Amino acid sequence: MMEKNSKIYVAGHRGMVGSAIIRALNKEGYHNIIVRTHSELDLCRQESVENFFCNEKPDYVFLAAAKVGGIIANSESLADFMYENMILEMNIIHSAWQNNCKKLLFLGSSCIYPRMAPQPIQESSLLTSELEKTNEAYALAKISGLKYCEYLNRQYGTDFISAMPTNLYGPNDNYHPTHSHVLPALIRRFHEAKVAGLEEVVCWGTGTVLREFLYVDDLADACLFLMNHYSGDETVNVGTGKELTISELTELTAKIIGYTGKIVWDNSKPDGTPRKLLDVSKLANLGWKYKVELEDGIRLSYEDFLNNPMRVER
């Protein structure tokens, strides 16, 4: 169990996941939290990361830093996604081990699992068949990170764990018009269409693929739970265990935002993996369950979007 005065480093504290972990830690009374902005600490520079860990000696590490993006961003920047994610995670995990960190939680992504993995996807499906090509570079980097945690545990007796969340959304999301994930992209598109009075909105793909969504504050709660209650080499899936089609998600988002025009599907755009539902029974058996239902979460996300200054600049 993390003590309330333990020194806790949250890597990626300005991102959607990292900021949610900070909120969760503050809520639970953890007050000795270390953060660094990119200008203060470039996680891709090994010497800088080594010096940071040597000087600060954090007891616990939440590794939420990552270069992320949707299908288009991933497919356009394959090399960047692989290099930056691989380098920063290896730097942090390695330095945490060298400086006797008590425990580290590495955050991956459900895209680590094979494209055609049996559904719902169990943790044991990892590396059993081919990955989805549209985000293969990101997935390979994340697999390397979680495997490095596993290998350190086996070789050196560390207590480094990994969690694999499903599709995330919530406060501090990226609302870039082309480089965001599906739900924030829909929020922005329908809001702008409503404001402009557009008669129709074009959405990518067929709308038939199935996806699962988790509110980011639920993920943060799960991360604290796992840090305090789980040790093991195998990763742990984090999700709701519920899925819907992208078409259903699109209609729900339009309803919440108040857009009443027509929705048109552009079948020339990629769908990605046909179905991606996580088996969350392992986490449920440990005693954790999500709290925020999708409709409530989208409403909260829309409020965040309206108050998010970054959407104007992007």
Highlighted features:
single chain, 314 residues, alpha/beta, six-stranded parallel sheet, 11 helices, 13 strands, globular
What does this structure look like?
There is one protein chain. Strands 2-1-3-4-5-10 form a six-stranded parallel β-sheet, with helices on both faces. The chain is built from eleven helices and 13 strands. The chain has helices at residues 16-27, 46-56, 71-76, 78-98, 136-156, 182-196, 216-229, 246-257, 281-286, 294-306, 310-313, and strands spanning 8-11, 33-34, 60-63, 103-107, 160-165, 167-169, 200-204, 210-211, 213-215, 236-238, 244-245, 262-266, 275-276. It is an alpha/beta fold.
Question: What's a concise summary of this model?
Answer:
This protein is of the alpha/beta class and 314 residues long. The chain has 11 helices and 13 strands. The chain is globular.
